[in-house]
Structure prediction request, 666 residues.
Amino acid sequence: MRMILLAAVSVLAISSTAAFAADPAKPMYGAWGVDLTGGDPKVSPGTDFDKYANGAWEARTEIPADQGSAGVGYDVYNRSQDQLRTLIDTAEPSTQIGALFRSFTNEAKVEAADDKALKVDLAKVTAIATKAQFVQTLGRAHGGFGGDIFSLDIAPDAKNPEINVLYIGQSGLGLPDRDYYLTDTFKPQLAAYTAFVTRALTMAGHPAPAKAAADVVAFETAIAKVSWQVADRRDIDKVYNPTTVGELATYAPFPWAAYLDASGLPGQTKVILGEKTAVRDIAKVYTDTPLETLKAWQTFHVIMETSPYLSKRFVDSRFEYVKALSGQSALRPRWKRGVQLVDGSLGEVVGQTYVAKYFPPSSKAQMVDLIANLKTAMAARIQAATWMSPATKAEALTKLSKMSVMVGYPDRWRDYSGLKLNVDDLYGNVVASRAFEWAYARDDLGKPVDHGKWGMTPQTVNAYNGGLENKIVFPAGILQAPYFDPAADPAVNYGAIGAVIGHEISHGFDDQGRKIDATGKLRDWWTAEDAKRFDAQADVLGKQYDAYEPVPGSKINGKLTMGENIADLAGLQVALDAYHTSLGGKPAPVIGGLTGDQRLFLAFAQAWQDKTRPDSLKQQMASDPHSPSSFRVIGPTRNVDAWYDAFGVKPGETYYLKPEDRSRVW
Prediction:
């Protein structure tokens, strides 16, 4: 879970399918909400709290061949996919849902069509005679298929957050991150990618596919060299660079007006640059690259994006590359890929039926109460912060009080009536959907921000903090066991979903969120002294994470993961405080020989239950601002005093920290 400048998105560890609870009046897991068979009692909590809570589960769990990982995140995700299938599979072919799903699952028709539609798009690339014409393909890619060397996003202006503006940033890479091109760690993945490019160009009929593939990879490597690292891209101050299109044309020579016109964004005067020097240098790389290389690059990217919707030979070719990234050995069943397509293309159409069937009003009411308790606990923690001055506390409390909360589903549903779909045309349906989505995004440009819009669908297994809108959003999809179970012990819900709520709330006050005020505006509202004291405590936490080594030879990047690590720690502390307050001064009951705090910490640990393939883990560590799941358990707990008391953790144990060495950032 995280909060970033343009789109605050929380990414859970999507990681074996759990059974539905037979009786909704009983918890889905164990007698009171936690699976006690999942822990390894031979491991002491202070030696490895993740193994203590999840070790037996990890030992007996095999990662499904079609997944990069297994765990709670995938349990809930797969359960949601099963739920969605019951809604999608029965939809009439005359409906949008039915037409799209059947166009994907009619494999015989897809095989017969093979690459007929693709050839039409590739012919347009082949016919390009000048770079001026090529720029058109970059712009049009935003509403169709193909690659672009720049990113275009429409989002609130960080200095005037009630108006949507255009952000331009770096792009152009086919691999997940610049490190895949530049470090020895990812040599096998780069080799697999190069082979994929070669296969794709061969299938397109390129006269020299191997040479062209080498040129394509060299072009992307040149872009990677000038691209910003992920850790630097997190810095809100660094990625806010307003400019005019005229000034941009001087700073980074490129036919910007023609490019934006082709993107469907004509007449722009003001834009905001994200990775400023990267945009400049990528424009230079583009200028220096021969047209034939650019055409081969675009040909490949069209094929890469369309492959999931073409015949088996294209699907299999792409999956050979995907296997090298994730380590998974089998493709997900076609129905699951079809559900995923419908979910991504018709999210709120599906969402209306989903919440009506799977998210009762009682669950929403319980969540609203829980979130109110968490906000109260966060307010108390702000008031008690010894490193924060009274003036900064007042601003923080104002921001917290104005932070809006959205639970389950939006108050106003999105209109999809303009999207026309054909049960007999999968390729055309995806083209229509992409054009529809880009038009929907473009329509916001220059208009007041609609705070009622959601950045996730109701069925998404995730949550987010909408930083520039000062709101937190919890879709119905994540509000399932073991994150949230109406029948579970309250300590379990506070330890699981409560920590998630606290996590999202605290993003408003982490290393980047603290730069945004109560109105969503980018403004430094901290005193210089407060900032120094905050940074000192954040650095304590960062150095701890820098020392963690989830994969031999690969340590966590404490700078990249800083915001998420702070939020994990704050979320756990706020959840613990709120749970104690909910007891109304009475002692927590002992259940199964476990205290309330012990149950809360165990629920927290099992909410991050995860087993990941090494290749998937390496990919996460290179590009994801979230730490690997085992350290989302270990890292926060060892900084919470109550954890030591709950489990009797003593000096000398692996993850024991002296009280003075624990981070007091929140």
In short: The chain has 27 helices and nine strands. The chain has a mean pLDDT of 94. The CA atoms of residues 410 and 453 lie 7 Å apart. The beta strands are 69-71, 150-157, 160-170, 241-244, 270-273, 404-408, 464-466, 471-475, 610-612.
